[in-house]
């Protein structure tokens, strides 16, 4: 599947959140920061959902189960979450 192009959002509106859901045992990740989106897309794969504004992709959401340790380690890697 072809990667969806993400539209840049203003710097003051960019965010990345990682929610550790112990009840469901998943990592829920959302980002609207293009460099982080690109790194996560390359390292973790296709987002499970997209955030859209007026039909343009402005963010991605990933849901990764705890037992997928390879992807979980990549999500929690500081080099993937903090853009350089």
Relevant terms:
84 residues, alpha+beta, four-stranded antiparallel sheet, 4 strands
User: How many individual domains?
Assistant: 1
Mind telling me the C-alpha Rg?
Answer: 12 Å
User: In angstroms, what separates the terminal alpha carbons?
Assistant: 27 Å
Number of helices: 3
Helix content: 25-40%
How much of the polypeptide forms β-strand, as a percent range?
Answer: 25-35%
How many strands? 4
What's the overall average pLDDT, rounded?
A: 88
Question: Could you list the spans in which at least 5 consecutive residues all have pLDDT below 50?
Answer: none
Question: What structural class should be given to the helix and strand makeup?
Answer: alpha+beta
Shape: globular
Concise summary:
25% of the residues lie in helices and 32% in strands.
Account of the protein in words:
- With about 80 residues, this protein is of the alpha+beta class.
- Helices cover about 25% and strands about 30% of the residues.
- The chain has three helices and four strands.
- Strands 1-2-4-3 form a four-stranded antiparallel sheet.
- The N and C termini lie far apart (about 25 Å).
- The relative contact order is 0.24.
Write the layout of secondary structure elements.
Elements: E1 16-21, E2 26-31, H1 34-43, E3 49-53, E4 56-65, H2 69-75, H3 78-81
Antiparallel strand pairs: 1-2, 2-4, 3-4
């Amino acid at each position: 599947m072809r990667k969806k192009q993400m539209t840049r959002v203003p710097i003051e509106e960019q965010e990345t959140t990682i929610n550790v859901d112990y009840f469901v045992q998943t990592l829920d990740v959302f980002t609207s920061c293009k460099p982080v989106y690109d790194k996560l897309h390359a390292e973790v794969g296709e987002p499970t959902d997209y955030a859209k504004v007026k039909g343009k992709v402005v963010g991605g959401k990933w849901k990764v189960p705890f037992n997928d340790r390879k992807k979980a380690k990549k999500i929690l890697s500081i080099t993937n979450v903090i853009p350089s």
